[in-house]
Design brief:
The structure is a single chain. The protein has three helices and no strands. It is mostly helical and about 80 residues long. The protein has a single domain (about 5-79), classed as Helix Hairpins (Orthogonal Bundle), CATH 1.10.287. Helix 1 runs antiparallel to helix 2. The longest helix has about 30 residues, at about 35-65. It is elongated and about 50 Å long.
């Protein structure tokens, strides 16, 4: 599992990141990768989880804003 085959995480949509994360989970559960490949996959998976969470938070914020809720926006959510 080589990092050179991966797209930059920031450019991935939620669906793309989730699909890649599902593939990583499948590979880790399969257990046929080397330890180094498994560690690299796990690290990539952690970053994908953070990316997906951030995208979901942005979507939830947008829904609240469109619903007319008073929303406090901080710099971390905006990033």
């Amino acid at each position: 599992m080589s990092n050179k085959n991966f797209s930059p995480i920031e450019s991935l949509s939620y669906e793309e990141a989730r699909a890649e994360l599902e593939e990583i989970v499948r590979r880790l559960e399969n257990g046929q990768d080397t330890l180094e490949e498994s560690m690299a996959a796990f690290e990539r998976g952690q970053v994908l989880v953070q990316h997906c969470s951030a995208l979901l938070e942005k979507a939830a914020l947008r829904v609240r804003m469109l619903s007319g809720e008073d929303v406090h926006i901080d710099e971390e959510t905006e990033a």
